[in-house]
Amino acid sequence: MKRLQIIDSTIVSLFSNLIFRGVGRNPKTGKKKGGIKVHSVIHANEGVPCYILFTSAAKHDHYLLAPDRLTAGDTLVMDRAYIDYEKFEQMTQRGVIYVTKMKQNLTCETLSSTYYMNEKGQMQWREENVVFRKEVKTKETDENGEQKEVGRVIWVTHIANLLLTLLQRGVTHAWSFSGLATIVRIMLMYYIDVIGFLEHPEKDREVALEEVISSPPATE
Fold first, then answer.
1. Distance of alpha carbon 163 from its chain centroid, rounded?
2. How far is it, in rounded angstroms, from Cα 98 to Cα 84?
3. To pair with 53 at 20 to 30 A between CA atoms, which of 26, 67, 144, 147?
4. Is 121 helix (H, G, I), strand (E, B) or coil?
């Protein structure tokens, strides 16, 4: 169990729809990802990750695969999002065992199959030489630009959170953070007294009620 490592990732949304709806970069898929991806490695016998890396949400999962950090005898378990055949070959040469799911569009060919028998003539174990084939796409990435993008997204999120926190503490009316963020998002495109509205959000309704109460009753 000490040699068994599990690798996975999760996306942390930095731009909540309550604050800024639909922000982030516009990829070709049409889906916006205004967040960061947390890559983590955990040993099966431990309760906390032994390695954590932050990238942009659009970064591919197999970016975390690092055969040079693994030694012979280690076992790595991951999902098919981490499939990288070049790195798989490096791990095989280093004696690292990896377990993952096979992609549906992957083809394989058995080059040789050898059966090893014991003294009683029973099969003891089987060895197969299998070749997997798949068209590998290559893409040049700017690592420095990637890290700068993550830093900008995090800083913008911190600034937005700070401004909303100051606004929440600066008014006497009791606002929840999510409610205040929703109101600010709605009022961003309107030129009104934001502080006055947040201090007394029911003022217009009270003025209307006073006009109805003070007006004389209708006579026939």
1. 25
2. 12
3. 26
4. coil
Give the integer Cα–Cα distance in Å for 26 and 90: 34
Mean pLDDT for back-to-back runs of 10 residues, the chain (220 residues): 81 59 49 71 81 80 81 87 85 88 77 84 81 60 59 78 87 85 79 78 72 65
Ramachandran class of 113: left when φ > 0, alpha when ψ lies in -120 to 50, beta otherwise: beta
Please count the helices (runs of H) and the strands (runs of E) in the chain: 5, 7
First to last CA, the chain: 90
pLDDT of amino acid 60: 80
Task: Specify the pTM.
Answer: 0.46
Report which of 168, 149, 153 is spatially closest to residue 14, judged by C-alpha positions: 153
Task: Tell me how far apart the alpha carbons of residues 11 and 9 are, in angstroms, rounded to a whole number.
Answer: 7
For residues 160 and 20, the answer to whether their CB atoms sit within 8 Å is yes
CA distances from 112 to 103, 115, 124 (A): 22, 10, 17
pLDDT for res 26: 54
Distance (Å, rounded) from C-alpha 162 to C-alpha 155?
10
